[in-house]
Design a protein that fits this description.
Oligomer: single chain
Shape: globular
Number of helices: 18
Helix content: 25-40%
CATH class of the largest domain: Alpha Beta
Largest sheet: 8 strands, mixed, barrel
Distance between the termini: 63 Å
Structural class: alpha/beta
Strand order of the largest sheet: 13-14-16-17-18-19-20-21
Number of strands: 22
Number of domains: 3
CATH topology of the largest domain: TIM Barrel
Length: about 550
């Protein structure tokens, strides 16, 4: 194999990514006798070995490190330790510094589930008897899958194969909300569903936790399993508001010389790029994926430092009446590095949305908005409001109600001036709880705005269940299409319905006078878009206000 060269920064990113796929990840530097691993802040920590790796003697780990370094090849083995069985993968990598290049080893460790122990035999032989089946689902386990998949592909060498790694979205919430017994029931159901979709000569497994893998004929590969799962799994959870979804990463086997574990790695790598996404269900590995993953991990690595260093800034985009009067603004985030480089929101927001880091960013901008509103008190801007976005992840990672009520009290601002934007994606998980929380915020005095209305498929349901004050029509409705007349009819109906529900309407994405005139004709009188103003810094917003007043 070709041993790849990486800087320390690149190794940090790689380890951060691999911790999503393995139970333990480290880089071993035999020349320095060091082991590097990633802490909770995604920073490298260093440990020193008690004896030199090159003098490891019969120590299996040291021997494997030495072999991987010298031969420049991946080393895999299974070992028993403290009553558990582990699959260990060691991949040689070259660490490149300013002064030298050092051959190191990337170590990835996974605990194998479904191992049966024979105490008497262990006593006699000091070893464990491994099972190749997962006791919960009856599918192959990690060990069994690698063995059987390799055997199957070798026996049917004339066939084309696909490796798919599946997991259950937000499975941890199943255990947290419904208990481990229900969690096991879900795992069994998914296992049975996977097995029902596999032909007799195809291989399916539960590798660990909620991670499954299949080795199937390429000609049989489609998205039918994902579709079936979306139809059959919801019935397992006795809650119509909690939706179970499956996501998959696909590796089309183009290189049969790869170990099966390396094939699974590729499928998992693809899967990791859509974890947490409410829209994508299946993604295929390609050779450019690693570059994308490294870029995303660099975003995650840079984020905390950038937040502390003041690289994030709140921008405001005015919301304007049909008479051209500024009534308020939406708070938007901009990342401007110390070098002056601007990181586009599309490059980092989706990445942060898939982690709990979006909560840190949201709390930052909420505080900035409250601080700005407080600074406007007693000035000619005190009647303006600022709308802030609430991510669906915020409901899971923090107490939104307490944070918001504490925030307005801290800065002494009117709750009506800090408007809260939500999207229908709050219905994706535990919707009853989230709707109750949003309605509680409304009852507390906050105005609730439904953002991107019409973009998804649950918008009307959201209107039925939630007490909202403002409806923001998605800009897609303004695009010229062959069915423009239908779009106009729909918009007119939505605006009329909003009036009946005593909800104000804001149209987003207005870019031309033609669009503005059409929306006024349909009965909408509040707008946001480039036709009026692009997002701008707080300083620029205040400067324009001071020069022009409320009119744009």
């Amino acid at each position: 194999m070709t041993v790849k060269k990486h800087t320390l920064s690149e190794l940090t990113i790689i380890m951060s990514q691999m911790t999503e796929l393995y139970d333990y990840v480290s880089v071993i530097n035999p020349d320095r006798n060091e082991e590097w691993h990633i802490n909770d802040n995604r920073e490298i920590e260093t440990e020193i070995f008690g004896c030199h790796i090159w003098d490891g003697g019969e120590d299996n780990r040291n021997m494997d490190v030495a072999a991987a370094c010298v031969k420049g090849k991946r080393i895999e083995r299974v070992m028993e330790y403290d009553g558990n069985t582990y699959h260990i993968l060691m991949v040689p990598v070259d660490y490149v510094s300013d002064t030298e290049t050092v051959r190191c080893v990337l170590e990835c460790v996974t605990r194998i589930e479904g191992v049966d122990y024979n105490a008497e035999e262990n006593t006699k032989r000091g070893s464990a008897k491994r099972s190749i089946k997962d006791p919960l689902t009856g599918l192959y386990n990690w060990d069994g899958f690698f063995e059987k998949a390799r055997e199957t592909m070798d026996e049917q060498w004339d066939k084309e194969w696909v490796i798919i790694a599946y997991d259950i979205m937000s499975f941890k919430l199943v255990n947290d909300l419904f208990g481990e017994e229900k969690g096991d029931e879900v795992l069994k159901a998914v296992g049975n569903l996977i097995k029902s979709k596999c032909a007799p000569d195809e291989v399916c497994a539960r590798l660990r936790g909620d991670l499954y893998a299949v080795c199937i004929h390429k000609e049989n590969f489609d998205n039918s399993f994902i579709i079936s799962a979306s139809k059959e799994l919801p019935g397992i959870i006795d809650s119509p508001q909690f939706h179970l979804h499956i996501q998959g990463g696909v590796y089309v086997v183009t290189d049969r010389s790869l170990m099966v574990s390396a094939m699974v790695d590729r499928a998992q790598l693809a899967l990791s790029t859509i974890k947490g996404s409410s829209e994508q269900r299946l993604v295929e590995f390609d050779e450019n994926l690693m570059e994308k993953v490294l870029k995303e991990q660099q975003i995650i690595t840079d984020f905390r430092r950038a937040l502390v260093d003041g690289e994030f800034h709140m921008f405001l985009q005015p919301q304007v009446s049909h008479r051209g009067i500024v009534k308020g603004a939406e708070a938007l985030i901009r990342w401007i590095r110390k070098t002056g480089e601007i990181v586009a929101p599309g490059e980092f927001l989706d990445v942060l949305e898939r982690t709990d880091l979006i909560t840190d960013l949201d709390k930052f901008i909420w505080e900035e908005a409250a601080k700005t509103l407080a600074s406007w008190k007693g000035t000619d801007k005190e009647d303006l409001y600022i709308s802030v976005n609430i991510s669906p992840k915020d409901f899971f990672y923090m107490d939104v109600y307490t944070f918001m009520t504490d925030l307005v009290e801290k800065y002494g601002i009117n709750k009506k001036k800090l408007k809260l934007e939500i999207t229908e994606t709050i219905l994706m998980q535990d919707a009853l709880k989230q709707l109750a929380l949003v309605n509680r915020l409304h009852d507390e005095g906050f105005d609730i705005e439904i953002d991107d209305f019409g973009k998804g498929y649950s918008s009307l349901s959201l209107l039925k269940d939630i007490n909202a004050d403002v409806l923001k029509i998605d800009k897609e409705f303004l695009q010229e299409t062959e069915n423009s007349k239908r779009s106009e009819d729909i918009l007119g109906t939505v605006i009329d319905m909003s009036d009946r529900l005593s909800m104000r309407v804001i149209t987003e994405g207005v870019e031309t006078k033609k669009q503005l005139d059409k929306m006024i004709e349909l009965g909408c009188y509040m707008f946001q878009g480039f036709y009026f103003a692009r997002p701008m810094s707080i300083i620029e917003f205040e400067r324009r206000w001071d020069n022009l007043g409320a009119e744009v």
